Amino acid sequence: MKLRTSHYITLAFLVVFTYFYRKDGLVATSVLYTAIQFALPLALAAMVGVMCERTGVVNIGIEGTMLFSAFTAFFAGAIMKDTVQGMFVGVFTGAMMGLLLALMAVSWKMNQIIAGVIINILAAGITSFYYRQNYSIPATLHPIDLPVVGAWPILGPVLSFHGPITYFGILFILALWFALYKTSWGLRSRAVGEQPASADTAGVSVTRLRYMNVTIAGAVGGLAGSYLALEAVGIFERGFTAGKGFTALAIMIFGRWNPLGALAAALFFGLTQAVTNQLMIDEVVEIPPQFITMLPYILTILVLAISAGKVRPPAAEGIAYEKEKS
Amino acid sequence: MDAKQGRKLDFSPILVPLLSIVVALEFGGILVLVQGINPLLAYEVLFTTAFGSFDGIAITLAKATPLILSGLAVAICLRAGLFNIGAQGQLISGALASAWAGYTFVGLPALVHVPLALIFGAFFGALVALVAGVLKAYRGVHEVITTIMLNSIVIALSDYLTSNPFKEPDQPLTRTPKIQDSAQMPDLLGLPLGFFLAIGLSITLWWIMKNTTTGFSIETIGRNKNAGWYAGISVKKTVMLSMLIGGAVAGVAGAVETLSIVGRFEPAFNAGLGFDGITVAFLGRANPLGVIPAAILIGGMRASASTVQFEAGAAPELVDLLLAMILFFVTAPLLAKFFKNRKESVAMTSGWSN
Predict the structure, then answer these.
(1) Using one digit for the tens of pLDDT, what is the confidence trace for A70-111?
(2) Does domain A4-135+155-307 have CATH number 1.10.3470?
(3) Do A191 and A204 touch, CB atoms closer than 8 A?
(4) By residue range, what is the domain housing residue B65?
(5) How many CB pairs under 8 A join A and B?
(6) Given A265, B18, B119, B191, which residue has the most CB atoms within 10 angstroms?
(7) CATH number, domain at B51?
(8) Which of A58, A121, A290 sits opposite B352 (nearest CB)?
């Protein structure tokens, strides 16, 4: 990983960790644990963006995908009284949302930004209409006590005892990185995102690959939504994703459309939030809660303002592919 | 525009939105049916409440007023190829600023106070939009993300301001003091003055878009940035100007709502007005005049949402659902395919890197 971002993040991480560790070891590990919890949905949602945009489809509907999936995951889990089944419903919903985006963006050749915004508004409209109070899931997904790692000093309590989606998500991000750069699927996907005409000439079906990747990405967004509803808090509210899908896009750009880069960027975002929370609890600084709410949004804008001019998105992104006309 | 392009009269700008509303209502009906509610009854209540009586129409037009303006805010930016989904934040900023101007200045005559408060609204709406405009013009940051983020920032910031420095003293609610009587916008012919202001602004902007160089520049960079650049139009300036106009109009929407309906700033009150602007703009095909009927329709639906709950048992979020369906069908090119001569005229926003 040749990202300078990662150096900054490592440095920030070390400074923060030393600061808290000198005060209280338990607090230090809990801040890092919380940072991972904040980071995971953002990282997963950023993967949705990476997968879509690498094949040339802009997905601004991540927010809606997560919201709708969180909604179905939660209510399916509550009605079936089974959190795990709820999660599968959430993932399936996400895939369907991805399919809808693919339909609009690839087949109908709609403007992809508008297609994404439609997904967001549809998700907000449908979830707020069908939302009901007084439902609850039996339990959040059980955290897993990692063997061996869990017993490590310092890192053990940070890395262990997260929920199953967290571990699966991290493995998925690593696998996605591998697949994108080391397999023929990845090569094809990137080719379709950069030079669809050439990929087409080489015998890759642009339409099919875009459909496939956008749908799978949707499923990942569904997993991120399920994480929020079933693993992180165990509730659902209207407008519950609170802009995370948009922050994820900034994280994707910050991470230069690279899964590992985006993971690092997400950890940075997560760490910032965890640290702010801790500082507030310790009453080191007195920040009105509204400013804590604002933090990720301001960070998103700042990150984009700094990195937008410096990074290059996939060349064919946002453009519907038209076969050469005769 | 259509008259210039082809001799034949083109009805599709009217037919496509109408058809999409019908299809959206049908699909929405199916979704309502799932809830065990009779959609026909719900729709009947919805439309008779909104348009069935003079009082109903007056309420509808009052509801439509901020929507005309927020729709206009989105539409003007769409013309420039910018997708301003930040009308919500700009509107809230304008609402808070006008409320502040409304309660702070004492002893002004209404003829001065109302315009002053409106200008405050326009200015602070434009200020929020300008952040997105500058970032777009100079850093190439996509306006969709910045405007959405700005929405959240403005909401949090206004919540902070109304619960601390601008809070009405000695009571528990998060809200500003009431505006002075001199800042209250009066009614005209039984309709809020803001309604006429909104219509006036629509016509003015329509005229500007059609007859001035500014309008031409905006249209040109909306169609093709490179062409605009070759023609000597400053793309950066035009992008910022369009966002400024959009933001100012959205700010006025918030100000009008504050000065004529709410009478103070309360965070919960302006919810959704800016977001509905997106649907209004698309339904009105990004035409400054087209947003008027679109806003009246949506205003009517919003105005009667609670009656629908009372009489047909459907949650008031039914309207959110229907609006989402309308937006889906009005933007999806499915219906438009029936009209072969139609040329794509709105919304050419593209990927991140422009």
Answers:
(1) 999 999 988 988 888 899 999 999 999 999 999 988 888 888
(2) yes
(3) yes
(4) 10-336
(5) 141
(6) A265
(7) 1.10.3470
(8) A58
